[in-house]
Amino acid sequence: MEGLVAGIDVGGTRIKAGLVFWDGTVVARGQWPTEARRGPEWVMRRLGREVRALAVQAGVEWRDVVGVGAAWPAFLDLESGWMEEAVNLHWKNVPIRDLMERELGKPVVLDNDGNAAALGETWIGAGKGAASVLCVTVGTGIGGGIVWEGRVYRGALAMAGEIGHLPMKPDGEPCTCGSRGCLETLASATALVRESRRRGLIGPSGSLTVEDIFVLVRQGDERASEVIREATFWLGRGLAAAADLLSPDVIVVGGGVAKAGDLWFVPLDEAFRSWVLPRVARYCRLSPAFLGEDAGILGAAKLAWQSFTEAREAPS
Ligand SMILES: [Zn+2]
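Above: the input record for the complex with zinc ion. Below: its predicted structure, written as tokens.
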């Protein structure tokens, strides 16, 4: 297959982008601060410059780029290409696809960050070769995406995969979505820090991060261990509910909290297996994400490959 696509992963603080071959090889990559407060027009102008500069970096012509895939931390209307809301960027009602196509001069396909990460991990990451993959990203919040036979499963309003808002605890903490006791209020990085503070834990610098909490666990701090036990209990229960519903081949778990490794992953796997249907568990593998920071870029790139090259080759 000739040509390249650009994969762009927009986060609350940084934008990452890469030029990607059909086999997932990243030939040039870059990242820069999002600076969302400057507004969509400004952010898009910089994005246009930075992404075109990748072609120079790779020694290819911009005209060799077939199309662009972009992952946004937002609720999107995929048909019209409008961003309805991006809570972390404080943006609402932005014609995001039109703005991007104008700056880049290429067709652009959009998706949310959870779906893009799921597609990336299924393409060349921890879910490679699997027919059905649930991908869960545990960071400040909890995001998710479902891939079914190589394609993102979206549901009616492209909202499928929002595992972070599974209702778990009726009297739980308020959630960013307006509800209470959602999975992300119980098991995200935000929840770990909140519960640790509640137990009086303090990090070395006076503040408290997820890394600090795991340092305390390693030092044998019982309060920190209890915070991790509770969070993994709830996440394991949420994953079991999702697995019973979907019966995926693989559940890929990534994000900032997953970087803690076995201290987090082992109790999570135990909790998951204690709740999930045994027949579902027999075929379902829980795996750490492989792609790390690259999942969004690669997923967005795969989306572009699927959207622009397959469409071009499809019989009319
Ligand atoms: Zn919620």
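Notes for the reader.
The longest helix spans residues 222-246.
Residues 165, 175, 177, 179, 182 surround zinc ion (CB under 6 Å).
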